[in-house]
Amino acid sequence: MAYKILNKCPVCGGKLHITKLECSKCNTVIENKFELSTRFEYLTSDQLNFVGTFLKNRGNIKDVEKELGISYPTVRAKLDDVLTALGYNVQQAASNVDKKKVIDMLDKGEISPDEAIKMLNE
């Protein structure tokens, strides 16, 4: 039985490295310090599920809201969490809220007035 690779240390939460690879056909073993091939390998299963939903809906936050049954701020928070886990600076992106975009979303009914106020106050 194969297990999923752990991506974080269960003791301290640090990133884990792969140190041993074995061929299932000839049993050749290679030992060294390997890193996971993509940054996505370091995401939790919840983060991966969110990314899958986000991509399936082609980045349409309103559709992600509907599918997951969560609010716009929650979708943004989950997206920020994924971006942080991938090593991107979320502070910079979050501070550049486009007020016109927020007002347009409010006019289209994509967000509630309360959500618009929260976004503008960030």
Notes on the structure:
The protein is mainly alpha-helical and 122 residues long. It has a domain at 41-121. It has 6 helices and 2 strands. A two-stranded antiparallel ribbon has the order 1-2. The longest helix is centred in the middle third of the chain and has 14 residues, at 72-85. The termini are far apart. The mean pLDDT is 84.
Count of runs of 4 or more consecutive helical residues: 6
Helix percentage: 40-55%
Largest sheet features: 2 strands, antiparallel
Secondary-structure element sequence?
EEHHHHHH
Distance between the termini: 47 Å
Poorly predicted residue ranges? none
Give the overall silhouette: elongated
Order of strands, main sheet, comes to 1-2
Key phrases:
mainly alpha, two-stranded antiparallel sheet, 2 strands, single chain, DUF2089_Zn_ribbon, 122 residues, 6 helices
Short description:
This protein has helices spanning 45-56, 61-68, 72-85, 90-94, 99-107, 113-121; strands spanning 18-22, 29-34.
Topology (elements, then pairings):
Elements: E1 18-22, E2 29-34, H1 45-56, H2 61-68, H3 72-85, H4 90-94, H5 99-107, H6 113-121
Antiparallel strand pairs: 1-2
Helix pairs in contact: 1-3, 2-3, 5-6
